[in-house]
Amino acid sequence: MNVAHWLARTARVMGDRPALMQGMRVLADYAELARRVRRRAAQFKTVDGLAAGDRVALFLPNCPAYLELLHAAWHAGLAVVPVNHKLHPREAAFIARDSGAALMVVEAAADRAALSAALAEAGSPARLVKPDHGLDGPAGAADPADPVARAAEDLAWLFYTSGTTGRPKGVMITHGNLMAMTLAYFCDVDEVRTEDAALYAAPMSHGAGLYNFMHVLRGAAHMVPESGGFDPAEILALGRAHGSLHLFAAPTMVRRLVDRARADGVTGEGLRTIVYGGGPMYLADIEEAVAAMGPRFVQIYGQGECPMTITALPRHLVADRSHPDWRSRLQSVGRAHACVEVRVERPDGVAAAPGEPGEILVRGAPVMAGYWGNPAATAASLRDGWLRTGDVGHLSQDGFLTLTDRSKDVIISGGSNIYPREVEEVLLTHPGVREVSVIGAADADWGEVVVAFVVADPVVGAGELDRLCLDALARFKRPKTYHFVAELPKNAYGKVLKTELRARLAAAGRP
Ligand code: AMP
């Protein structure tokens, strides 16, 4: 089973359907998309000399070529390593080295000198190529062959997630995982129709890119906004112009979309499905969204280690205001997908009773194969097939799961995950910084913002710490506020009490 077969199948039966769009401009139909994919796959195989199982990193913003490169890699039997394009060159170079990527596709305007230096410093042999790689390959390179055979347990997508240890870990997602996830979507989340288009307003390197499969299978189009990202006015206009769009939006994006729709006096016409997830959606926000825009919303809960397929709250349950449990269901993340088992476990390992909190575990076909080259982390997260999500929550009598906490301390700002430890490690490289603790503070615009508590020599200022972060981290991970303190609150074991720091911020009413 190779997911590349899906594109070949659709191109055969619906070759004239629009496949790639930039805004409302159609760039390619399915026959043309499949041709480009075969040509690029031929380049990977015969010119670049890559073999089944080799890795290709994509360090790109959203662009139409993204989809071609993903499917070309799979067609050639390779695994993709999508890298968040906002990462610092050093962070991207770490991923290139760790994954053993042979090639890294970077945007034409990228600072290639900085990237080459970072790759050399990290010891990665990855060769930098441009997004049009393989399109103008040797004449006749268009590969007539079927996709290279892959087994369900073969690696398809190596997704880097920042770990609590500060170093990102490669989550191994197989062809079988992607197939289970895709079929589960049709079973428990939503239908996709040929006349639909998937609008990529969130990063394709992350969850948004995974929606391509459902749309490929149904012969629906793939649309990259002209802005390449999330612009609420543009999205509302595209909805009206196209008439049947699907998009994934983090809760903060939903809020901005609803604000814009309200301000413009529109209801989001043409936005058929807005899938939300990736972070907590506050009840007031989703209530307002449904009131302003109607039955367009569907919720999913997943994580890189079990992509989008732990639970779902389908459209009719999000929109059914007449149901007596409507509000409590909206506060939940829905019910377990048909293809997984979900369990809430108490700290003593016993299954929690309904209503009782515990860690959320999931087992089933979409659960990752493990962490790339990291058996210790794999053993800590996967036991007897059960994935320990690090999320805390409880199940209701009728199977609705409500999340209450994140035991991993991750900060989710604007839909992006930031692990405090990686920011802390950078700040601690400053010779004048003695101790540091980074936490998330509630923020009306971003969901959470990064705040650092620092114990430092009196001469150390916020400006130089900010410059230090800019030199080593993606911009979105920088602390927005620094609090210089004499000491950090700690428990008897010397562990910093983040809960107390959070309480201080809450009491002060500002980050
Ligand atoms: P990632 O691995 O980057 O996709 O992040 C996954 C984490 O985001 C999960 O472990 C949850 O903590 C959080 N998350 C994902 N979906 C939801 C949701 N629907 N509601 C609340 N939190 C969510």
Automatic annotation (TrEMBL):
Domain called AMP-binding enzyme C-terminal: residue spans: 422-495
Family listed: Belongs to the ATP-dependent AMP-binding enzyme family.
Keywords carried by this UniProt record: Ligase
GO biological process: fatty acid metabolic process
Record domain AMP-dependent synthetase/ligase: where: 8-372
Species this chain originates from: Pannonibacter tanglangensis
Keyword Ligase: yes
InterPro entries per record: AMP-bd_C, AMP-bd_C_sf, AMP-binding, AMP-binding_CS, AMP-dep_synth/lig_dom, ANL_N_sf
GO molecular function: medium-chain fatty acid-CoA ligase activity
Protein name as catalogued: AMP-binding protein
Pfam families xref list: AMP-binding, AMP-binding_C
